[in-house]
Amino acid sequence: MSAGTAGTATGEPAPRPAGPGRRVADPAPGERIAALRRLAIATLDANWEHDHTVPSRTLYPHQWSWDSAFIAIGSAHVRPDRAWRELHTLFAAQWADGRVPHIVFNPALRVGSYFPGPQFWGSTAADGAPAVATSGIVQPPVHAQAAWLVHRRAPAEASREALRRLYPRLVAQQRYLTRRRDVGGAGLACIVHPWESGLDNSPAWDAPMDAVPADAAVMRAYRRHDTAYADAAHRPTDLDYARYVAIVDSYRAHRYRDDTLAGRHPFLVECPLFNAALGAAEHALARIAGVVGADPGPHRERAARVTEALVRRLYDPDTGTFHPRDLRTDRLLPARTVLGLMPLLLPDLPARQVEAVIVEACSPRFGLAARMERPLPTHDRTAPDFEPLRYWRGPAWMNTSWLLWRGLLTHGRRDLAAGLRESMLELVATGGCHEYFHPDTRAGLGSAAFSWTASLLLDTLAEG
């Protein structure tokens, strides 16, 4: 279906997306769920681009890595063939070293239509890069978990064959992260740019970002794409962007080689979310191995090592939560953000840390409860630098809520999971399938038709 066709995969008329402050009508629970489902399907259909789904038609017109993983999870509920195509298209752009780039560029779009575009990254000049233009960095490895969830939704022979094709690529992705990116030598993957965390502008990165030399005047050489479609007051500042550019410049100058990162790269951080996803991926790969005839044992062993390293390196008993570690200073970063809750994704997280993270999530900082008064924020509500409107510095996001929801289910906290699920449904019922939401009013912010919000809504609805 083309982006301009009005309709859904079920053949029903596409509803008009809810905007800020405009609720999806819900005179009865069944009708409410049906309306939300129609909205989600229509959003995904509108963003489908022949072999992948764009995050949005305005802000993000190419293919993004962890977006595609989240999108596949929801698509599996309505179009399993499209879910597999989403993942296979992404992994067709995998680098020879195993990295899965965070952006795969659509060559049909005009030069300059997006910043930072393919000319900025210059990936095709790097060793082992694919023929298609991509970025040179990665995003959290949620792809193995996505592949497993897609298969579990419809475990037919076609699904098993799709898993067999994807399995070696998923293994190569994990090998890249656990070997080439273990810059600290302690068993965790290191991110080399805030964009790799997925939470680009989080307060978690303020201290290491402040140490990156840059001048806001650098941005005069570029035309930002995001502020043409979203309020500049809600987005990273020009100084933030100048630092983002400086970090990429450093990595690109060394042709995206990871063997020269230690001691010279300006941003080196071990992230709780990234490494929780890394460990959860090994658990998912153990299940996938059982389907495709491979040995699940090595995956289970690697998962245990990642969990042990995560607790040893990133858990702070004084705060009772997980924090990123800045490898350049060898210190934990102090901000209390939603990143610290993400190790609940690990089924083998020790009980002491499980309980501590749940206490943190239920504190006034995040407000998790069986009946939530407000949605889950991305940053500590009580912190002086909490910003309810600015990108990743306070607003609620569907994907971080979904990840925590999955973690709660993993550890048997169905009471809290039910409260978070209802809060997620209320987000979309109030604000539509927006990119992110005001953490008090639930008004939609960012892109008005965002794919992972729609997709994870479908998954959340199906698990009710």
Automatic annotation (TrEMBL):
Keyword vocabulary terms for this entry: Glycosidase, Hydrolase
Protein known as: Mannosylglycerate hydrolase MGH1-like glycoside hydrolase domain-containing protein
SUPFAM superfamilies per UniProt: Six-hairpin glycosidases
The keyword Hydrolase appears for this protein: yes
GO molecular function: Glc3Man9GlcNAc2 oligosaccharide glucosidase activity
Domain of life: Bacteria
Family: Belongs to the glycosyl hydrolase 63 family.
InterPro entries: 6-hairpin_glycosidase_sf (IPR008928), 6hp_glycosidase-like_sf (IPR012341), Glycoside_hydrolase_63 (IPR004888), MGH1-like_GH (IPR054491)
Top-level taxonomy: Bacteria, Bacillati, Actinomycetota, Actinomycetes, Micromonosporales
Domain Mannosylglycerate hydrolase MGH1-like glycoside hydrolase as annotated: residue spans: 60-453
Chain spans, region Disordered: 1-28
Any Gene Ontology biological process: oligosaccharide metabolic process
